[in-house]
Amino acid sequence: MTVLGAVLAVGGLASVALAQDGADPGQVDVLETAGYLDPVLVDFISSSIAEAEAEDAVAVVLQLNSPGSVVSDEELTALATQIDEATVPVTVWIGPSGSRAYGGAAEIAAVADEIGMAPGTDLGEVGDQRLPEAMFGEVFDGALDDRSVDDEVAVDEGYADRLAPTVGLFVNDLDGFETEVADGGDVEPVTETRFRQLPLGSQLFHTAASPAVAYLFFVLGLGLIIFELYTAGVGVAGVLAAGLFVFGCYGLAVLPARGWAVGLLVLAMGAFCVDIQTGVPRFWTGVGFVSFAVGTVWLYDGPTLSWITLVGVFVSLAFAVLAGMPAMVRTRFSTPTIGREWMIGEAGEAVTAVAPDGTVRVQDALWRARTNRATPLAAGEPVVVAGLDGLVLEVESADPERRPKEHRRD
Questions:
Q1: Residue 356, preceding peptide bond in cis (omega within 30° of 0)
Q2: What is the DSSP letter of 257?
Q3: Which of 280, 218, 294, 355 is nearest to 272 (CA)?
Q4: For 144, which DSSP code?
Q5: How many helices (H) and strands (E) in the chain?
Q6: Cα distance between residue 227 and residue 272, in whole Å
Q7: d(CA 345, CA 364)
Q8: What letter does residue 163 receive in the DSSP assignment?
Q9: Whether the predicted model's global pTM rises above the 0.90 cut
Q10: How far is CA 300 from CA 127, 219, 256, 258, in A?
């Protein structure tokens, strides 16, 4: 028998003896987290640590993949304090490959009892430290404030404790984790490993607090609300719009979104409505696109949106505003008997003042109308349809003397 085999055998016998004596091998709780540390995720981590303490767990492993934190300094400090003072060891495993711990997430990792990293992961970019130095000192000695390091450098320079390709291997090497040697010679765990995730409802709110998702929910919600304005009644689109808009607002409220940028997004949608109503993209469409672009680019103070998200949104928006919505409006408000060229010459009445825009009634149907600025029409004045511009009627007074000189008949 090899030395390793003898050691494993002795360890296995010891574990079996403990089990026979009725000793509880306990459990390790692995908390699966991903995304920004937002209030939902912080509450999940905090309550899970408290539950592990109550159950006298062997350890808590925070499986971390986070670009940073969006909670207040006070909330981040409270979580770090709980980790530092917990009666069970709280450790961090950054993984799987491609994961990272930046900003506030890196600060949380720094106060944990142990840090493990999977191959292809990164740690650092702390920025301005948010945890009080009087309580926690300078995390990573300030060496990772403006840079990040990969797994090998982090271990070599002492920022992380060890490499662990999988969370299972990381857990197996924790102090207090028990294993035994099975009949076939394989080493099997005795200590239970429990994987815990956010509940479904909490996961929905956590997803809504992702920068890209919050932006998409907010924009789609506004777009569907506009769509509902031009349809009869409230349908599925209206219910979906309300849901998306609420979750989008929640996400933007949690994330560091600039209020004035959010206002520009709303302004853009209002500007689009002006020209959608006429059925022809004009000045306000340009205003809408400029406002939307500025609001999107400057929406977040910190988090960024990927170019794939930006291209997809702008292409979809351009199609909807320049083609889709005008076509839908023309179809919705046009009938075989009202509208089109035969209306030229039809008589009607100004329902509101037309100076130069207003509303007229032609054959018992209300229409948006426009007239020459030099000859405004008063409410109640008889009018004649002189032309069509999309869904807008170009009208003039029924009194020949009130018409522009070039339209008078001798």
A1: yes
A2: B
A3: 280
A4: T
A5: 14, 16
A6: 11
A7: 16
A8: E
A9: no
A10: 17, 14, 6, 6
CA 278 to the chain's CA centroid:
33
* Closest listed residue to residue 361, CA positions, set 382, 340, 336, 332: 382
Tell me which residue of 95, 1, 88, 18 sits closest to 49, measured CA to CA. 88
The whole-number average pLDDT for the span 97-123 is 95
For position 266, what pLDDT does the model report? 93
**pLDDT at residue 173 greater than cutoff 70:** yes
Place of tokens 């030229």: 344
For 250, residues 6+ apart whose C-beta sits below 8 A from its C-beta are 205, 208, 209, 214
Q: What is the dihedral of CA 147, 151, 156, 160, to 10 degrees?
A: 80
Tokens of 393: 């009627």
Which residues, 6+ apart, have CB-to-CB distance to 103 below 8 Å? 66, 67, 68, 69, 125, 126, 127
pLDDT band at 6 (very low <50, low <70, confident <90, very high): very low
Are 108 and 92 spatial neighbours (Cβ–Cβ below 8 Å)?
Answer: yes
